[in-house]
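pasting input
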Amino acid sequence: MDGQALRPTASWENGTLAPVDRLRAERADSPTPGLVEGTEPGAGQKSAMFVHAQSFEDLTAEAEEEARRDDELDKSGECAEELKVLVGEKTIEEQRNNSISSESRSKEEDVSSEAWRSHRKHVFVLSEAGKPIYTRYGTEEALSSTMGVMMALVSFVEAEKNIIRSIHADGCKVVFLTKSPLVLVGVSRTCQSDKELLRELQYIYYQIVSLLTLTQLNHIFQHKQNYDLRRLLAGSEYLTDNLLHRLDRDPGLLLSAVTCLPLASSARDVVSSSLQAAKAKNLVFSILLAGDRLVTLVRKKDQFLHHIDLHLVFNLVGSSSSFREGEGWTPICLPKFNTAGFFHAHISYLEPASELCLILVSTDREDFFNMSDCKQRFLERLSKRSAYQALKEALKCPTYSVAQVGIPELRHFLYKSKSSGLYTSPEFPEVYHSDEEQERLMGLYQDLHSCLHHPTRPLRSFYRCSETENLLAWVTSGFELYLCFSPLGTKALAVSAVNKLLKWIRKEEDRLFILSPLTY
Amino acid sequence: MASGMQEKQYTPSLLSFFIYNPTFGPREGEEEKKILFYHPSEVEKNEKIRNVGLCEAIVQFTRTFCPTKPAKSLHTQKNRQFFFEPEDNFWIVMVPWFETQCIEKPNKDGKPPTIEYQEEEILDTVYGAVVRQCYSMYKLFNGTFGRAMEAGGVELLTQKLEKFFYRYLQTLHLQSCDLLDVFGGISFFPLDKMTYLKIQSFVNKVEESLSLIKYTAFLYNDQLIWSGLEQDDMRILYKYLTTSLFPRHSEPELAGRDSPLRPEVAGNLLHYGRFLTGPTNLKDPEAKFRFPKIFVSTGDGYEELHLIVYKAMSAAACFMISASVELTREFCEQLDGLVGPQLTLLASDICEQFTINRRISGPEKEPQFKFIYFNHMNLAEKSTIHMRKTASVCLTSVHPDLMKILGDINCDFARVDEDEEIIVKAMTDYWVVGKKSDQRELYVILNQKNANLIEVNEEVKRLCATQFNNIFFLD
């Protein structure tokens, strides 16, 4: 490291320590020579597979972004034109009920009880007329007056040409998100920042849009302000329940990234090219999943899948067992792609007991048989190759132990390659095996994440030493890294661990990331 | 007119400040009765009622989820409101507003400029503490709200509130509030044992000779040396002395000997002592012997006291005497005659000792770090970030964003009860280190852009060894 003499000694005498200007946009360069932007471990070689948030910030600038994207689609997208035709669709409800078995929820709870109040995180969705649409705990009926108050607060502040954001009490905060025609409210006893909670509410908003499209939502409430949206969403609440569960547990939703099934690149390339060959006129995305892990994704040229859309697809597939029973065909709106129309997804497992799930996304609602045919072609092609066997082998160990990295005291880590939108992370070690402990660790990561990505005071690195663990987080222009050490780990160890870990990821990147994404 | 010539509108840093009690006007049409104080007073009646109504609604709504912990703040796009319920059903609400909270982005084509709001500019902990401080200061000079209610009902209370806050709010400098306001600590004057004993014996002698004196506090250079008050009372009295009373009286000492600003010294060459509260000139036959009254806590309630602040050069002594006693010219002359010469002597003793100590420790090299230290047990604070505290501004030598990062780390510490250490590197490459150990907190800003985590750690270790050699911090 730097010698004593090299240390620049800027003086304090000049009055202030104020920086010349804020370097908000610039992040430190990579620690290891050769690791610069775009070439961080895990970065795709050709082009990104899907659109992803370059930074956490763009979730807030969303409205404009959406409008812009809509504009672009209006102008050029042939696909968008087709989608618009579909907006009038009336049969979603029946179709959804066919494809997804609605699991009954036991939500009966006394909403005035201490038990109800002390839930870690409440989420409420209501219409601008104050009608309940969703509650995570208890029943909507029992909470209609509470939600009425929420709406009254929102409108009252709005009348002053202002927007309500949050209410803070000791150990409890209430966060409001207005996404006309919906209002979302989160009540949390966790330490999460307002911004983290808002991000979660955004996800819930998109989950609802993905079922109905924004166009339809607007249409409904323009015609009948008082409409009870639960009639349309009946039977789909479990999707929101599940998404909320994921938000507490899945680092991908926090990092705005997805993780891959570790697989030799030779095998992955064969799977990808087989999928690429099984194309059809209206096929936009082909996604192969192993549980919650991406095996490969092939997309139409110039069409990108946003990580939020991808997580919504993951949530849809992961929440329902009915797709195991055969080939599913369901309309889905991918709101970050286009809030106005539906895609149609062909969802099926490659083999009855397999974890491998294939999702073929088409623009045509009559495309079921074409998609089914694509799947057959893909399967035929793949089963002839030895790569299929390698893939099945890889399923047996979908994750890896942190011990493989060979850093003592390192318990767990998250590494995100910014340019590819992919992340990697080992399995939870023994100390974090219980659900509570895993959620606690996720909470710590969320903390680090919100400190580093603070809206006005972002940080380059963050090190926290506490009685239970030592944590280090580091953001550069190319990657984000979060490390969790045992409390015995020293700072010197943490510094050397970063370099060692980055080298290890570089060595393993073929296996851990998708380096050469394909298009049709 | 050129757009550049447009007059810029300056807004004061306090948008509004009001006190209400929802039980005072429970019926519809009587809402105005709830409002006990409202700043700015020229706000239209209905708007006052509306704003109080919103606060009531927020507080009520929050009870749905946490019945025991009241709402403390409301964040909106444009501002933040801070709530505090110091006594049952009495709510104080403060809404600060700074220019830095919104940025005007000029638009082309003659469209009005877009306004962008900086929603994270304000730290909740800082302004939450400021509201509590406002109440403590009111209570120091007036006793509780309940006391005024008992004595003269709502009418007396509103009078008292009006009288106190009308002036006090003008002295608030919200923009320069920071982590130190969260701590509300006391800066102690470092002293050798001998000098400390001299001061203690001085206090004892004075209390013995003037048996009316109940409590004494001794300060030098705006720093506390000795106090007979409870910690919380001393904390708010200290705040009053150092940010309001002392700065108002600092000029005469700087003024020349013949300046009309120091008549009392001109007439008395035996010592430099003078009253900062009470009579300005004892020789004046018209002099009034009225002192401000303060309320301090006793075991089961509070007692009312006269506050006499007497100063000689940089040394100040506060003597507190039961308010039931009437203070006379004779008493004041006796005090002046006894304390004046001794305090003058002590002040020069301390000053001499201070310069010797300084010389021993050698010429101070500009350090590579700045720090803030606070001890929750004895409220001791020390800051090398703040250059000086005056009534008007609290000058810091670091960028406001760095100060806010310190505030963020402090919030982090407040959430868990364990010892912790946090080291962050800001976008400007400054390193900020926070350590919490037992009841102590230390924050260091390092200006070593190319240092790494290990070097920063070494640097902070060195600092702890030289400045706080007897305090253990988690490594």
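fyi The longest strand of chain B covers residues 302-312.
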